[in-house]
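Worked example (supplementary).
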Amino acid sequence: MEPTSQTESTEGLSKCTVSFGISLAVACIFNALLVVLKEKSPATMAWMKKTSGHHWATHTLLSLLVFIILGLILNRTNNGNSSKSDSKSLPSLIVSSVAIGAAIILGFYLFID
Amino acid sequence: MSPNILLMAHVLLGVLCLLGAVWLFVETLHISDANLSRVRCLSRVVAITMWIGYAVAGYFYILHYAPDKAVILKGPWPFAHSVFMEVKEHVVIMLLLLVTYLPIAAQSNLAHNAGARKLFLTVLGLIAVIAFFADGFGGVIGMGVKVGLLSK
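After joint prediction of all chains, the assembly is encoded as:
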């Protein structure tokens, strides 16, 4: 990585970055679990189709709502302090949640559905 | 608008999002005070591009995809829908979440905060990888339609 002209900051991430980073990880897992739920539960699929006219549109909307609402809640409850460990663990958390989410979706359509 | 135009527009916007993510990745590897505002601005452009592409793709998928789906499922490549389309349409929701988060992550001082920079690069890497696979999966779906029509 290219060194910067000034000294690197030792501060953690901003409150908003941490809150919405965690909500992003949760929303990715939620998105994958919702795939399994709607495909396995006809009642859920019917409700999702009825709500917006198409199950995929409702799916997108619900995932976005989880991301935004959870991010806002965490942003309010977080005092504004983030440690250096947040900046180390958050990238791993996001990569893990995206990988697990993708694996659940791929595995479901390859082997279960 | 013609469904074919919508279909091509969503591919174009998806590729622009991928190129934008790669551009941002390189800019961030060489970040300084001089290009910080450009990185922040470009992160919003990537997010908006993806949102428009997603809306166009969603419009096509909901209103015009059903005949293609029927052709694929009756053709020799039914997996083009049952695996590739199903996986693509749900994995790109994560892509939408990632690009929405991108401008938030860009608000940190990327030039002087190594942790924030690592997080931003991680998100960009995920965006590029998912966009790349979505593009490839789209190609398989298109081929599914083609071989389905040729087999008639």
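Two points are worth noting when inspecting this output. Chain A touches chain B through 47 residues (CB under 8 Å). Chain A has one domain: 15-112.
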